[in-house]
Design goal:
six-stranded mixed sheet; 170 residues; 44% strand; 4 helices; alpha+beta; five-stranded mixed sheet
């Protein structure tokens, strides 16, 4: 179920102050990531596990000759237990010059938001991790938690993904 995602329409929409987000579900919540970071969407296939990796790094897959680390966002965000079923998908991203996959419960659709539909991320105590949330988008009755997927995938604990990919290539 591979699908090319980044489109010329996304670039044209950005010129008008509109942004496109791929929406997906993690548990009961709906999230959005910048469509321009999405390379493709794939059905779930168990990755090759790598020893001594944190639980949120499920392993690696070989994607047309490229070793791609797979991160389960449900585990990374400490959500309910991760279940892998027919709706589970891996979103393959191109961030910070590397390819990485994230596992989500399901993909919904591509949502176009104007600046007026995006609110700043709420301020919480320092104990709550919100640095990867860029804002909250509203579409009709839906609320999307908008993620800065680039910052999330380049955070210090994610540097372990590079080590996993290098081990697999060796």
């Amino acid at each position: 179920m591979a699908t090319g995602m980044a489109s010329a329409s996304a670039v044209a929409e950005a010129d008008k102050g509109l942004r496109e987000f791929l929406s997906f579900r993690l548990g009961a919540e709906e999230y959005g990531i910048d469509i321009l970071k999405v390379q493709e969407i794939r059905g779930w296939e168990p990755p090759t596990a790598i020893a001594n990796m944190p639980a949120f790094i499920k392993g690696v897959v070989n994607l047309r000759g490229i070793i791609v680390p797979i991160v389960d966002l449900r585990i990374k965000f400490k959500l309910a237990e991760a279940k892998y079923d027919a709706t589970t998908v891996a979103i393959i991203l191109n961030v910070a010059g590397r390819v990485v996959g994230v596992v989500v419960d399901s993909v919904s659709d591509v949502v176009t938001l104007s600046a007026q539909q995006i609110r700043p991320a709420p301020e919480f105590s320092a104990a709550l991790e919100t640095r990867f949330i860029t804002g909250l988008g509203t579409v009709d009755e839906r609320m999307l938690i908008l993620l800065d997927i680039e910052q999330l995938m380049t955070s210090s604990d994610m540097q372990l993904m590079d080590a996993a990919a290098k081990r697999q290539e060796a």
